[in-house]
Amino acid sequence: MPLAFIIGTAGSGKSLFTAAFSEWLKMSKQDVAVVNLDPGVLKLPYSPDVDVRNYVDVGNIMEKYGLGPNGALILAADLIADEIGNIAKDIEAVDADLVLVDTPGQMELFAFRASGPYIVNELTKEPKAIIYLFDAVFSINPLNYVSNMFLSAAVYNRFFQPQLHLLSKCDLLPEAEVKTITDWAANPRALEDSIEQKLEGIKRLFSRNMMRAINQLGIKFLLLPVSAKTNQGITNFNTALERILTGGEKYTY
Ligand SMILES: Nc1nc2c(ncn2[C@@H]2O[C@H](COP(=O)(O)OP(=O)(O)OP(=O)(O)O)[C@@H](O)[C@H]2O)c(=O)[nH]1
Ligand SMILES: [Mg+2]
Q: Which ligand 1 atom minimizes the distance to the CA of 107?
C-alpha cells in the first residue's frame, strides 16, 4: 500500500491536514489509514490507526535519561528507528489502500536526522510521496517564501521521493494573496518582481540569489492551495497524489 508523508515546519498544519484529508477520503469511500509518527504530541485532531506513542514515550524518556523536552524529542526520533519493524507490522495489519503519515512537529527531527530517511525507506517498498506544507500566512512575505522553498529543497535532498507542495491554511488569506503566492511558484519572474518590490538591501539580495540558486536545481515547484478548515483544494491535491502513487487510478475500487 502506498504511503504519503506529511511534512512541514512546526505548526504548519500537518496534523489538521492529515485529519481533514483522511476524512475527505473516507467520505469518498476510499480505504485510508492514518499513522501518527509524532512522539511528543499530546492531542491529535484524528484517531490514529497506528501510533508511535505506543512504542516511544517522550515523558518516559525525559525521566529515564534526565533530559529536557528537546533532548528527549531528539532521542525519541532515533528510538523510533529501532521500532520501525513493529510500526511497519502495525501498518500492514491495518491493511488500507493508502496510508497517511503525520510526522513530528519539529520538522528537523524527521527530515534532518539520519532516522527520518531510514524510516521512510524501511516502512515500505511500495510507492511513496512527500507532502510538504507551506504555511500560507507565513509565506506571504517573499523572504519567508524563499526560505520555505529552500527548506523544501533541503527536504527533497534528504528523501529523493516524489514531492508535492501545498499552501496550507489558505482560508486565512484573501484570495488575491493566495494567487500571488501560487503565481510565485508557477513563475519565477513573478517572485523576482515581488522580491524587487517588497524587499530592500541585504534581504532583497539574499532572497533573489537564493531563489535563483534553488531554481537552478531544476526542482519543479507546483504549489496547491488547500485548507483543512474549508476543504478547499483537497480534490485537486488528491488528483495530484493519485497520479504520483497509483498512476491516476483510485486507491480503492
Ligand atoms: N484557519 C486554519 N487553521 C489551520 C489550518 N490547518 C491548521 N490550522 C491551525 O494551525 C494550528 C497548527 O495546526 P496543526 O495541524 O497542529 O499543525 P502541525 O504542523 O501538526 O503542528 P505541530 O505538529 O505542532 O508542529 C492549529 O491551531 C490549527 O487549528 C487551516 O487549514 N486553516
Ligand atoms: Mg502535528
A: 25
DSSP structural state of residue 227: -
**Tens digit of pLDDT for each residue in 144-194?**
999 999 999 999 999 999 999 999 999 999 999 999 999 999 999 999 999
pLDDT for position 188: 92
H/E stretch holding 236 reads helix 234-246
> What is the whole-number distance in angstroms between the Cα of residue 139 and the centre of ligand 1?
15
Proximal ligand: closest to the CA of 18: 1
pTM score, two decimals? 0.96
Kindly give the distance from the C-alpha atom of residue 21 to the centroid of ligand 1, in angstroms, as a whole number.
Answer: 13
The whole-angstrom separation of Cα 42 and Cα 180 is 35
Q: What whole-number distance in Å separates Cα of residue 15 and Cα of residue 201?
A: 37
Using CA atoms, how far apart are residues 161 and 8, in angstroms rounded to an integer? 15
Q: How far apart are CA 166 and CA 182, in angstroms?
A: 10
